[in-house]
Amino acid sequence: MKSLTNLISIKNFTIVFILFWLGLFILVPGILVVLVSFFSSSPTEFYQAVFSLESYTKLVDPLYLKVFENSIYLAFWTTLVTMIVGYLYSLAVVNCHKKWHAFLLILILLPFWTNSLVRIYGIKILLGANGIINKGLMSIGLISSPINILYTDTAVIIGMVSILLPYMILPIYSSLQKIDYRLIEAAKDLGAGPFKRFTKITFPLSFAGLVAGFTLVFLPSMGMFYISELLGGPKSLLIGSVIKSEFLFTRNWPLGAALSIGMIAILMITMWLMNRIKVGNVE
């Protein structure tokens, strides 16, 4: 009885600690960002505690709308490429013998042991005019001069895919693992071909993992400003870069907070749409 009481007390303490942690480091900062977004900018201070909608009116400025458009564009293609590569890799892992699953997943997780900034510098070396890719292609005669890959949207997408790919693979693999493959065997016995088995059974039953991966990749790919700055240059501007500049350099905290709220709003709309697609797919 005493041990049960101790277990309950430990459980309650854990719950209270987690709630305190989430409230202190997520809820409170979130509330502060919302509050600051409704304050006025100040030429001498970070903000002026006077109610104003000035920052939100700037969000419809063509300049910021263009940044949002470019961010969504890069995030969309990053997520799409990540979904295709991640799904194919997850399928390959699931179809391998179980003894290889852990090894193949560790290969995906290995990059996490290295700082992402270091990996981006490595990709920068690969994609440069004198990088390994261009030198290799020229050495075998496929090209006569270096291909301009670095400082383009393509380079940014390659960098973000390399960083975010594990976040897509893990939820998709988890969904594929949960599929009762007796259903696939039954469909095979009934004469369904590989394509029909995939479209009617495998893909619908793993769609939840695809939605989870989409959510985990789409928003970060809009805010990873260091990737766009290192691989894309000033032409591949992400909303994360503008938010960083408003907080750190321009010192216009209300506008930076309003831009953050705008990015969160895009995420919420995206999640709602994906949830609707998920529900429709289940039905």
Write the SSE topology.
Blueprint: H1 2-37, E1 39-40, E2 48-51, H2 54-58, H3 62-95, H4 101-109, H5 116-127, H6 132-139, H7 153-177, H8 182-189, H9 194-205, H10 207-223, H11 225-232, H12 239-248, H13 253-282
Antiparallel strand pairs: 1-2
Task: Give short descriptive properties of this protein.
about 280 residues, mainly alpha, MetI-like fold, two-stranded antiparallel ribbon, 13 helices
Overview of the structural elements:
Its main location: membrane. The chain crosses the membrane at residues 12-39, 72-90, 102-129, 149-173, 205-227, 253-274. Belongs to the binding-protein-dependent transport system permease family. CysTW subfamily. It is a multi-pass membrane protein. The protein has a single domain (55-280), classed as MetI-like (MetI-like fold), CATH 1.10.3720.10. The chain is mostly helical. Strand 1 (39-40) and strand 2 (48-51) form a beta hairpin. The protein is globular and about 70 Å long. A two-stranded antiparallel ribbon has the order 1-2. Helix 7 packs across helix 11 (225-232). It contains 13 helices and two strands. Helices cover 76% and strands 2% of the residues. The model has no long low-confidence stretch (mean pLDDT 85).
